[in-house]
Amino acid sequence: MKRLFLGLALHSHQPVGNFPSVFAEAYEKAYLPLVAALERHPTIRLSLHYSGSLLDWLREHRPDFIKRVAALAARGQVELMGGAYYEPILPIIPDRDKEGQIREMQEVVARDFGVPAQGLWLAERVWEPHLPKALAQAGVPWTVVDDTHFKLAGLEEQELCGYFLTEEEGYTVKVFPSSKALRYHLPWHEVPAVMAYLQSLASEEVGAIAVMGDDDEKFGSWPRTFRHCWEEGWVESFFQALEANAAWLTTIPLGEYAARFPARGRVYLPNASYDEMLEWALPASQGQRLHQLKERLAQEGRQDLLPHLRGGFWRHFLVKYPESNAMHKKMLRVHHKVYAALERGPGRDQEGLRDLWRGQCNCPYWHGVFGGLYLSDVRTANYRHLLRAESWADAHLHPQAGWLSVSHEDYDGDGDREVLVEGHSQNLYLAPHLGGGLVEWDLRQAAHNLASTVARRPEAYHALLARPQGDGEGVVRARVKSIHDGLAMKDGAPPPVPVYDRQRRLCLLERFLSPGTTLEQFGRGQHEDLGDFAGGGFQAESEQEGAAQVIRLRREGKVAGKGLLLEKSLRLQPGSESLEVAYLLRNDGPAPIETVFGSEWNLNLLGGGRNPFAYFVIPGGQVKDPRLDAWEEQREVAELALGNRGLGVELRLRLSPPGRAWRFPVNALSSSEEGVEEVYQGTCLLLAWPLALGPGEEAHFRLDWA
Questions:
Q1: Domain spanning 507-705 has what CATH number?
Q2: Which has fewest Cβ within 10 Å: 319, 431, 608, 657?
Q3: Of 28, 167, 215, 639, which one is the catalytic site residue?
Q4: Strands 118-121 and 78-83
Q5: Could you confirm whether 473 is annotated as catalytic?
């Protein structure tokens, strides 16, 4: 008789910093219904994984849920998978953090659920060949990746009915291939079709298994799936069908399977993730071409060729999104500080280490069909924890009050040296080669990076919005579609014309505009920048003047083809949250220059969605719309303030001489589970003055931030 084991590994996760309402909704729609269904069907056995950020929330807000899962584990119905606690992309964090986070999860699973953690859930199934050694050294016997990994290594579909052994330097780990076909069947196909597919996989071979490792959220939390899975009873019907077919189909936790059956052989897997992730990691234009090629081959019935097509490499997200790379390199810098502080023996207090780990949560480091990097709240949360970890470490490394240091180094691995100003009160990371802009501006007490704004750039799915939405791979679907099957605007409205930025959205960039340029033109990228300063290289030097640190950035550039010297000087006082910026502009050419000079600041104070806590004010002045995501222009502004009461941050600025203030929201066209929508990344503030310089003449402008 042909038989089959079915190994289901369901992963539940919410990002560090996600809204409490999102945690609660996912709990009610996905996590709780699944556990209740397992309680009703004691013969259904599987593996469950809960990320550390979700466990922290459950422990505080739904402690009875943990007890219910522990009861399922105690009777052997479910096993609890281990993982790296705060769900990092494991290959890109230092080895000490790999082991630390894995060990933390093992300890918490044993404490909260009363059973040892089994195996490891690999975040986003991002695999690199060096991982077996780190996993084995952390006590991990097995993990789950996608069948994509195995097919890229040359294995055929029919070979993937068990687990394999892989190794690095002799350290071995068992790896299960998770079936993409099963991911696309559950819960999108009707139950009879799912059972027919499983029947087709049954084998006379002892121990044949089909594995699916995927998100628990797809069973109720993804759009329209709660009705499908629970109100209309898909999961109940599926569990009943599994019970009715128990004579040939046996559900089994993966750890139990790995203990009972031998490996099918040895394998060496390439750098990979699941198929969709490899497509998302490509540059937008290449991602579009790959998607079109897959569609064409599927239409031609050449599914046999699809396994030989591969997309990109996860780490290319750090190239595709320099904002992600900046966060990653910040994380590495904080890692070194934290471990240096730990070596000084701060006792039992290791909260800085925990904040470092929270700042490694994978979600804002990449972007695919989910908002990821574009979710400013999640991005801000990672920076918040990294800055808290940094302040914890610096309290041990710099015990003196009011310290301030300056270094010139290539902290982000781009081949150019940045100027890093770090101190007790604030950090400023300046990139002389990127227009002398601020790539990071940290307020240490608030643990907030003001400069965390993501540029508006093309995404592969933007081209899909104009196309009629079909059924993805051409299969018959259930009454609800997977989020991978099509894209549309979240509200069903026609998509707007995408706006793309020419450069990164930094602070302290200089613009030279035609006098007739409007706010609308500037905000939508329809203006001409007459200067070559915003993207040009600056010479940088730093010196100490009394107690203050002064950074001078200088460029001899062009405005409308005419020579102009621009020097901007930043002065910081130890222990102060103030920043003084002084501009010197000198016409070094033989012809007069007439333009509008602007200093651009892209600031993220979480002002999207008409946030009532985020505001813009002019003392004694008239502001029609005080929200940070409003479009507005003010003239003859001498002072202004912007802030967010929820963050506890207010910035005050004095302009000398008074000038014009433009502001508008930087909204990226980003996909999410619900569809594509405009998502707030930050507020652009342009401070501008008319500039008329004869040959040899100078102009001076000053910005005082506090």
A1: 2.70.98.10
A2: 657
A3: 215
A4: parallel
A5: no
